Amino acid sequence: GCGGSQQGQTKTDQKMRIGVVVKALNSDYWKIVEAGAKAAGEKYGADVTVLGPNAETDVTGQISMIEDQITKKVNALVVAPSQPSSAIPVFNKAKDAKIPVILADTDAKWDSKVSFVGTGNLNGGKLGGEYLAKILGKGKKVVILRGALGDPTHDDRANGAVEALKAAGLEVATIQPANSDRAMAVTVMENIIQSKQEFEGVFCTNDEMALGALKALEAAHINVPVVGFDGSPDGLTSISEGKLNASVAQSPYNIGFQGVEAAIKAAKGEAVDKRIDTGTEIINKDNVKQKLDELKKILGK
Amino acid sequence: MSTNPQALPADAGTRKFRIKEVLQKLGALISLVVLSGILTYLSPYFLTMDNIMNIARQSAINSLIAIGMLLTILTAGIDLSVGSVVALSTCVMGILVVKMGMSPILGIIACLGIGALVGCVNGLTLTKMSLPHPFISTLGTMNVARGLALILTAASPISNFPWSIQYLGAAFWGPIPVSFVLVLIVYGLFHVFLNYTTVGRYIYAVGGNPEATRLSGINIDKVLIIVYSISGFMAALGGLVLVGRVNAAFPLAGLGYEFDAIAAAIIGGASFLGGEGTVWGTLIGAMIMAVLRNGLNLLSVSAEMQTVAIGIVIILAVYIDVLRHKAAKKAK
Amino acid sequence: MSTNPQALPADAGTRKFRIKEVLQKLGALISLVVLSGILTYLSPYFLTMDNIMNIARQSAINSLIAIGMLLTILTAGIDLSVGSVVALSTCVMGILVVKMGMSPILGIIACLGIGALVGCVNGLTLTKMSLPHPFISTLGTMNVARGLALILTAASPISNFPWSIQYLGAAFWGPIPVSFVLVLIVYGLFHVFLNYTTVGRYIYAVGGNPEATRLSGINIDKVLIIVYSISGFMAALGGLVLVGRVNAAFPLAGLGYEFDAIAAAIIGGASFLGGEGTVWGTLIGAMIMAVLRNGLNLLSVSAEMQTVAIGIVIILAVYIDVLRHKAAKKAK
Amino acid sequence: MDQYFLSLKGISKSFPGVKALNNVDLDIKAGEIHALVGENGAGKSTLIKILTGAYQYDEGEMACQGNQVRFASTKDSHNLGIACIYQELSLTPNMTVTENIFLGREMRIPGVGLLDYRRMNRIAQQTMNDLGVDIDATKLVRSYGMGYRQMVEIARALVENAKLIIMDEPTSSLSEKEVKILLENIHKLKEKGIAVVYISHRLEEVLDVADRITVMRDGCKITTMDKQEADQEKLIQLMVGRTLEEKFPKIVAKKGSLALRAEGITQNDLLNNVSFDLYQGEVLGFAGLVGAGRTELARAIFGADPIDSGKIYIDGEPVKINSPEDAIRHGMAFLTEDRKGQGLVLMHDIRFNSTLSGLKRFCTFGPFINTKALENEVESLIKDLQVRPANSLITTRLLSGGNQQKVVIAKWLCSQAKIFIFDEPTRGIDVGAKVEVYNLINRLVSEGAAVIVISSELPEVMGISDRILVMHDGEITAEFAQSEATPEKIMRAATGGISDEYKSASAAG
Ligand SMILES: Nc1ncnc2c1ncn2[C@@H]1O[C@H](COP(=O)(O)OP(=O)(O)OP(=O)(O)O)[C@@H](O)[C@H]1O
Ligand SMILES: Nc1ncnc2c1ncn2[C@@H]1O[C@H](COP(=O)(O)OP(=O)(O)OP(=O)(O)O)[C@@H](O)[C@H]1O
Ligand SMILES: [Mg+2]
Ligand SMILES: [Mg+2]
C-alpha cells in the first residue's frame, strides 16, 4: 500500500508499465481477466496493457507478444501461458532482462516465476467431476465434450474431470472434441445421442460447448445434468433459467486483478506470495443469482 | 440442358444416356454411396430415419456456404472470408434484434445484407483495386470481419433470439428439418441460375477463359462482384441457419468453415482452375463431409483417429471420382 | 537469368535499369519500407537493434515455410499441410530424442526426413493418383499428419530438448539470431536453385503452362514430387527452429501456419496462377507479416483491432505493389 | 462521307518499348472486303483490336458512319455492329460450341428470361452445317482440335447480325477445303452488304477475296490499293521492302538411312493402323483436311497421347515412347499447332521459352546452368529466325502471333534433335519469314536430320516435301513423290477418294 504510492510518486512522469499476455482475447473469460487487470492498474496507477493472440492455440503468436513486451521493457509481466512448457525459453529471456514474471491462470514448471495466481484447470476439472459424481451417484456414465485436442487448458480440465469421476466410481462414456465451439457441440452431441450410447450426465470443458450440448439434448428430449466450465454470462443465465445444471467457475476477474497486483509488487521489489489462490467454485441454481449480480458489477454494464 | 457442360452426351434424349449423364454429373455420388454403405455395415444407427435427418440438418450450413463458394471457384477464385462473414452478420443481427429490440425481419435483412456487403467489398477490392487474386482480398476481409465481430460483441455470445429468426435453423416440418428444405430450394434456384441465365453462364465463361469473355463484350468485373456478393450472402444465410441451430450468435462462429466449403465444392468435382463444377456435385460434396463426421461420431472413433480418417476419406472420395472418370474414358 | 521473368525491362544491362529491375523484383519492398516508416514514427521501440533482432527471429519460421510454399505456388499449387508437418516432424523427433534417447543428429535427420516424406506423399497422391488439385491431397495429409502427431504424443507436449537441437532456433551469434542467418543462407540457396538449375526453371515452366512443359519433354510428375517434398522438408526445418524457440514439440504446433506462408508468398508477388513469384519477394512478404504483428504488439493495439489491422494491411501491401506496377508501366 | 462505314485517322498506339501503330489511316467502305497485309509485328492485330475497342488508341480519331466514336470496350463496337475473329483463338474450352457462339449475346425465352438452348442449339448447328464441318454444337469446344475451333470462331462471327466482320488470320489452321467454304461465305456476306476486314499471310487468298488491300509495315500504313492494281510480287515488295527470289527454296539432301518407322499406330477412333517410314535427310509432308488425324498421329508418335497399339522404330531399333520425355531422349522434336496452349509459357520471356526443351545442354557444371552459353545461343537463334523485337528478355505474351511462332521453332532448334515433327510450322508467319523457315528445314535435312511437316497449305506441302503422305479419317490414303504430286490428286486422296488404291498398293509393296 503505502510504500507503493511513495515509489509511484518518485517517478511521476514514468508510470509503471505492466504487460499482461493472456491466451486469447476472444471469449468472455479472458475479457473478464482483462477487466480485472485493468481495474488493478487503475487502482494502483499503473499502465496495464492486455494482449492476447487470435486463438488459444496460437502458441508462437503468444510468445512473440511476450518478446515484444520485453522489448518494450515493461516493469513486470503477467502471463497466462497457453503452452506452459513452450514458454519457458521466453520466460528466461524476461528474467535476463530483469523483468519479473507472474503466471496467471495456468502454471508452468519454471522455478524463477515470482508467483502463480489462479487455481489451475486441472483442479477445476476435478471440481466439476466431483460435483457430477455427487449429483449422479456411483456407477453412472458421463459424456465429456472438450476443446481442441492437444490444447493444454482443455487437456487439464478433461483429465481433472476424468480423474475425479473415476475416483468416485463413475464411468466415462466417451470423450469427444467439439473445439470449444457451440455449433460443433450441437452436432457432436446429436451424433452421440444417435449412437444410442447410455449416459446420465454431461461435462463440457467450457460453457459454450455446454450450451451447445444442451441444445441437442433438449431437441432429443433428454433430461440429464450438463455441467460447463468458466461461469460465463451466458452460462450463468442458462443456470438461472434452470437449463444448465452448473458451471465450474474460476475467478477470472480475481486472476486478472491479483495478477497485476502481484506484478506491481514484484516490480517494486516487494515480496510476493509464491502461490495466490483465487478460488474455484461450482455455480449452480443455489448461488447463481449472486454470481450474476457480481458479474454485472464487474463488467459495469 | 446439363449442369456440367462437359457431361453433355452427343445424343441426349435416349433413356440410357440420361442415366449416364446423371452419373457423370454426380461423380462424387459413388463416393457418397460407398461411404454410406460402409457406415451402414459398421453402425446399426447409421441408416435410420432419425440419423438421416440428423445428417440433413448437420450438412445444411456447409451446403449453403459451399454453393456460394462454388461460384467463386467457378471463376477460378476463392472466398476465405465466409467463416468470418457468418460471425459478423449474425452478431450484428444479434445486436440489432436482441440488444436493441429491432424487429426480427429487419434483423434478418440486416444479416443477409451485411453478408452481401462484405462479399461486395471482396469483389470490389478484387476488381477495382486490381488485386492479383481473391486470396488476398478475402484473406483481408476474413480478418477484418472477424475483428469487427469481436469488437461489436465485446467477445461474448448473444442468445435468446426470437423464434422467427430461429425458425430456419431450428424448425421441423414433420420429421424434415426446414434447413434442409431451404438447402434443396436454394440448390434448385442455383441450378437454374447457373444454367439458364446469362450471368450464370458468364460465371462459367470467366473461369474458362477470362480474356475471351472480356472480348465477347462481357463485363468481367460485374460478374465477379456479383459472384462475391452472392458468396457473402450465402455465408450470411448459412449464419442465419446456424443461429437457429444454437440459438446464439457468437464472434467465433464459423471458424474454419472456409475449408469445409471448399472441400465440398472440390469433392463435388469443381476445379480450382475455374469453369468446372456443378451445383449438385457440391451438394454431394457437402453430404460426404457431413456423413463422414456423423459416421465417425456414431462409431465413437477416438478424436485423433477421426482427424486421420477425415484426411484419408477426403483423398479417397476424390480419387474414386478420378477412377470413375478414367473408366468412363476407356469405356468409350 | 532473371528470377521474375515478367519483370524484365526492355534493355537490361545499364546501371539505371539494374536498380529499376531490383525495385521491380522486390515490389513488396516499398510496402515494407512504408510500414516500417509508420511504425518507427509511432513507436520508439520499433527501430531499435533489439527489436530488429526480435523481428528477424519472429519471422524466421514463417520465412522457412514460405519458401517451400512459394515452390508449390509457382507450380500453380498449394500446400495446406505445412502446419501439420511442423507438428508431426517435431513430435517424432521429440519422441525419438527426448523419450527414447536417440542421438540429436539422428533426431534432426528423422525430423527433416519426415517432413520430406509427407511432402513426397503429397506429391505422389497428386500425380500418381491424378488428383485434380493439391488442395485435396494436402488437405488430406494436413488432417492425417495432425492426427498422427496427436496420437503419437498422446496429445501432450515434449520438452527438454538437448541444446544441439535447440541451437538453430535458440542460439545467437553476437546479437544475431542463428535462425535468421539460416534463413538468409536458405534463401540464397533457393535463389540459385530456382534460377540457375534446370529443375528450378522447370518449376516456373510447370506453373506457367503445364501442357507446353510436358510437350517440351519435361517430366512434370517428377518436378511436382520434388516441389512438394521440398515444401515438406522446409516445413520440418521451420519446425526445427520452432523447437529451438520454445524448447518443446507439441501436437498443436503450426496451426494456421499455412495461411501465413501463403500470405508471405503472395504479398511477395507470387501468383496463384503459377509461374510467377520470387525468392526475395517471399522473404519480404514474410518480413511484412512479422513487422506488422510486432508493430501492433509494440503499440499495444488490442487483439480485435490487430485482427482488423492485419486484414487491412494485407490488402494494402498488395495494393501498393499493384499501384507501383501501374506507375512503372506508365512511366515507360 | 457516308460511303465509309468506318474511318480511322492518324491512329497511333504505343506499348512499353514499341510503337505498334504510327499515324495510321484506314477507311472501310460498307460492304467491301478489305484485306490487311504486312509482316509479322507490322501492327495488323493491334489495329483491329483498336477497331473493336479491345485496345484504346493513344492518338487519332475514329468515325463510324460519319459519327465520331471512341470505344471503351468491345461492347461498344459490338453495339455498332462490329464483330471480330481474333487471331489467337478466343473460345472458352469448358463450354459448348453453342454457348461459345452465343457468348455475350445469348437468346432467351421471351417472357421467361431464361436461356433458350433449343433455339441457340438449332441455329448453331445450322451454321456449322452450312460451313460444312462435322461439329456437334452441343459438345464442348475442348473436345475439338485447332482447325475445328477456328470454324467455331467463324460461325460465331456469322451468327451475329454484324455490319462489319473482322477476321484476323481466320485460315491459318484451315486446309484448302475449309478455306474455300470460308471464302464463299465471305462473298455471301458481301452480297448482303456486310463489310469484311480480312487479314492473312496467304497472299493467294487475299488476292482472291479482297476488293481493296492495305499494306502495313513497322506500324505504318504503306498504301491502300484496289485489287486490280495488286499482284503477289508487288505486295511482297511493299510488305518486306524487297523481292523474294523464290517462294519455296527447295534443296534435295542426301537421303540417308531409316530414321523413324511407325508401324500400325492405332488410337481409338482417331488413328487406324497408320504406318510410314522416314529417312534421314528427307522432308516428309503430311497433307489432309481438318480433322484428318495428322495432329493426332504426331502426338501419338511423340508420346503425348497414349496409343492402343503400334510400334515405333528409331534408327531401326524398336523403342518404347510413353511420354514426350522419352521421345526427346530418342532425339525427337515436336512443334505443336497450338502455340499458345501447347507451345509457349506465355508469361515467360523468349530466352526462357526458347531454351526450355534443351536446357540440360547448358549444364556444364552439375545441375547448374551456364548462363553465358545460354544467352549466346538464344541471341543467335533470335538472329537466325529474325524474331522481332530482337530482345530475348521480352515476355512472349507480348509478341505478335508470327513472332511467337518463331520462338516455338527456336525452342526445338535449340533442343538439337535428329527427328523433327513440325505441325503447321508456318502458321501465321509472314511470307518473308516463311522462306526463312523453309531454309531452316533445308539446313536441318542437309545436316542429316529427318523432318515431318504437317501443313494445311497445299502449295507449301508440295513445295518443300520430298515425299507427301495424305491422310483421311485417321488413315493414310495416298503417298506421292514430290514430282508426281498435284493439288487435284492430293485433294482426291484427302477426301477419301483413292484410299483403296493406296491400300492395295502398299499391301503389295
Ligand atoms: N500488349 C502488348 N504489349 C506490348 N507490345 C505489344 C502488345 N501487343 C502487341 N505488341 C507489339 O506490337 C507490335 C505489333 O503487333 P501485332 O500483333 O499488331 O502484329 P501483327 O501485324 O498482327 O503481326 P502477326 O502477323 O505476326 O500477327 C509487335 O511488335 C508486338 O510485339
Ligand atoms: N482432344 C480430343 N478429344 C477427342 N477427339 C479429338 C480431340 N482432338 C481432336 N479430336 C478429333 O480427332 C480427329 C482428328 O483431329 P485433328 O485436329 O488432329 O486433325 P488434323 O488432321 O490435325 O487437322 P487440323 O488441321 O485440324 O489439325 C477429329 O475428328 C477431331 O474431332
Ligand atoms: Mg497478328
Ligand atoms: Mg492438326
Automatic annotation (TrEMBL), chains B, C:
<keyword id="KW-0997">Cell inner membrane</keyword>
<keyword id="KW-1003">Cell membrane</keyword>
<feature type="transmembrane region" description="Helical">
    <location>
        <begin position="26"/>
        <end position="47"/>
    </location>
</feature>
<keyword id="KW-0812">Transmembrane</keyword>
<dbReference type="GO" id="GO:0005886">
    <property type="term" value="C:plasma membrane"/>
</dbReference>
<protein>
    <submittedName>
        <fullName>Abc transporter permease</fullName>
    </submittedName>
</protein>
<dbReference type="InterPro" id="IPR001851">
    <property type="entry name" value="ABC_transp_permease"/>
</dbReference>
<keyword id="KW-0813">Transport</keyword>
<feature type="transmembrane region" description="Helical">
    <location>
        <begin position="59"/>
        <end position="76"/>
    </location>
</feature>
<dbReference type="GO" id="GO:0022857">
    <property type="term" value="F:transmembrane transporter activity"/>
</dbReference>
<dbReference type="Pfam" id="PF02653">
    <property type="entry name" value="BPD_transp_2"/>
</dbReference>
<feature type="transmembrane region" description="Helical">
    <location>
        <begin position="298"/>
        <end position="320"/>
    </location>
</feature>
<keyword id="KW-0472">Membrane</keyword>
<keyword id="KW-1133">Transmembrane helix</keyword>
<feature type="transmembrane region" description="Helical">
    <location>
        <begin position="167"/>
        <end position="190"/>
    </location>
</feature>
<feature type="transmembrane region" description="Helical">
    <location>
        <begin position="223"/>
        <end position="243"/>
    </location>
</feature>
<feature type="transmembrane region" description="Helical">
    <location>
        <begin position="264"/>
        <end position="292"/>
    </location>
</feature>
<feature type="transmembrane region" description="Helical">
    <location>
        <begin position="105"/>
        <end position="124"/>
    </location>
</feature>
<feature type="transmembrane region" description="Helical">
    <location>
        <begin position="136"/>
        <end position="155"/>
    </location>
</feature>
From TrEMBL, chain D:
<keyword id="KW-0762">Sugar transport</keyword>
<dbReference type="GO" id="GO:0005886">
    <property type="term" value="C:plasma membrane"/>
</dbReference>
<keyword id="KW-0067">ATP-binding</keyword>
<dbReference type="InterPro" id="IPR027417">
    <property type="entry name" value="P-loop_NTPase"/>
</dbReference>
<dbReference type="Pfam" id="PF00005">
    <property type="entry name" value="ABC_tran"/>
</dbReference>
<dbReference type="InterPro" id="IPR003593">
    <property type="entry name" value="AAA+_ATPase"/>
</dbReference>
<feature type="domain" description="ABC transporter">
    <location>
        <begin position="253"/>
        <end position="498"/>
    </location>
</feature>
<dbReference type="InterPro" id="IPR050107">
    <property type="entry name" value="ABC_carbohydrate_import_ATPase"/>
</dbReference>
<keyword id="KW-0813">Transport</keyword>
<dbReference type="InterPro" id="IPR017871">
    <property type="entry name" value="ABC_transporter-like_CS"/>
</dbReference>
<feature type="domain" description="ABC transporter">
    <location>
        <begin position="6"/>
        <end position="243"/>
    </location>
</feature>
<keyword id="KW-0677">Repeat</keyword>
<keyword id="KW-1278">Translocase</keyword>
<keyword id="KW-0472">Membrane</keyword>
<dbReference type="GO" id="GO:0016887">
    <property type="term" value="F:ATP hydrolysis activity"/>
</dbReference>
<dbReference type="GO" id="GO:0005524">
    <property type="term" value="F:ATP binding"/>
</dbReference>
<keyword id="KW-1003">Cell membrane</keyword>
<protein>
    <submittedName>
        <fullName>Abc transporter</fullName>
    </submittedName>
</protein>
<keyword id="KW-0547">Nucleotide-binding</keyword>
<dbReference type="InterPro" id="IPR003439">
    <property type="entry name" value="ABC_transporter-like_ATP-bd"/>
</dbReference>
